[in-house]
Amino acid sequence: MKRLSLLLDQIDGRSYKAYKELKGVYNFGICALSIDHVQGDPYAAPSRISITVPPEISTFPAHLWDGPIRKRALEDYLGRAISRTIKASVKGRRGTGKSGQVSIASGGQQVLARNAVNISSMGVEARITVALPADGRRILGKEAQEIFFNELPLVINKGLLIENLDLEKIKFHIESIEDQDFLRKRLAEESLVAFVADNSLLPRRTGIDDRPLEKDALPFKSPESLAKKMILPNRGEVRGMAIPEGVTLVVGGGFHGKSTLLHALEKGIYNHIPGDGRELVVTDPTAVKVRAEDGRSITGVDISPFIDNLPFHGDTVNFSTENASGSTSQAANIIEALQADSKLLLIDEDTSATNFMIRDERMQALIAGHREPITPFIHRVRELYEYQGVSTVIVMGGCGDYFDVSDHVIMMDTYEPLDVTEKAHRIAASVSKSLPPVKLLPIGKMKGRTLPIERLSARRGKKDVNIDSPDVETLLFGEHRIDLSAVEQLVHEDQTRTIGLLIHYYAQKYALQNIGLREGLELALKDVEENGLDVLSPWKVGNLALPRLHEVAAAINRIRVRG
């Protein structure tokens, strides 16, 4: 500690590069502080430090982090506690550029597997970024001392020592996450694809604010016919709406809550923090939201189950394009989801290609089948369930033809779910069909995919590895700028960054093996599960968050061919 203070005195007023002399480990008494990376100038990405509190000082009981889910929950809680303490105790900007900014990767309504905080038998480690202060490019040594010796000790004391934390809140946080994970694992055992607990608050504040809408938000209540009680390890008995496997329609008038329910189901693949309102909204962990995505790149995807007999003999068995239409993109998105072993598709009519979802009798009568290359999804949705074991939840507001192929129909009426299955089926039975049923070849087993290794190069110019994520929707990977705006289940840019590192890891270790894309990504993710996110980076960083295989595959599938 004294050594760091002396160094800061010595380099005060010198050129910014003199900060490099600080790199190393310092004893702060209650912790060890390691300066792992020093930024090159005050405008560069902040310096990276790690703080390790030994177990005899942190004293977190082992039962709080016994098992991967409880461990993840405790690390998440501590990351949020540190973030709150930074906001309360750190002055922030104090000089040129980013000078004085201190932060830790945390936050959001979802609980993600991160590497910002790590707890083990060796103690608790927190990885923090500090923008070392400067005036222009001259070191502000006294300001740096204020950060290291006044502000960071407060952060450590209030955010990492159990004696200064609320143990009951920690336990509640952990047990809430544990219950959610337990409930999600129960879905398959109960032949369900989703569960929405009574009293859940589904509406969000705005389209860009994922926090719950507290004013005028109606608590969710299951219709009796779909209600099910589940017993959770900590919370005990909960009642809610159980969505069975099969084909489920969510219908209703505009602005009555259809898409709100679907959005909650999309995010039900994640655990949520207490107070989010969706803590007990859980969905099959392989659920994928699919939509039309005009203009996306597609390479070598067999979309023939949905698109065939193109004019001029276009190949749809090995379909490639740099500018997909709404229907071809939605077909590819579904096939790619199935190739990644999804067992639940989530579809909203509003973000789908109309001609992909349905072709009514009048249009079929006008345009003969041999002139129409698109097989609408309505003709495949039951086959997907009955022969592939893939369920579908569809938000549908403008077409009743899907009543014929549905197992359950839920009507949202002023944000209240009603089971209208019987009525919908009666309506469907009362409408005569003038055209014969469509005869189709079966979809068949999904084939594994492989991609040329050169497509997965992270090199850009002289940089062997160029990977970054300026936002959650954009991945910079090598020479590529990958648009992930239609991959709607990503929730944080740290996941996007990690996707880039996973692609690079997969390319270096598994892509050359004679295995499919999904199998190779499964091996890469297994390595991360066993060894932690640090296996992906040659440097110690704290800004990684785990994505699913589906989102990693989605990014790979959107890499454009460079001519």
What is the number of beta strands? 27
Multimer state: single chain
The assigned structural class equals alpha+beta
> Main β-sheet: number of strands, strand sense, barrel status?
6 strands, antiparallel
- In round numbers, the mean pLDDT is 93
Describe the model.
- There is one protein chain.
- The chain has 3 domains: 2-165, no CATH class; 288-430, no CATH class; 453-557, no CATH class.
- It contains 14 helices and 27 strands.
- Strand 25 and strand 26 form a beta hairpin.
- Helix 3 (68-89) packs across helix 5 (167-189) and helix 12 (493-509) packs across helix 13 (517-531).
- 31% of the residues lie in helices and 21% in strands.
- The chain is an alpha+beta fold.
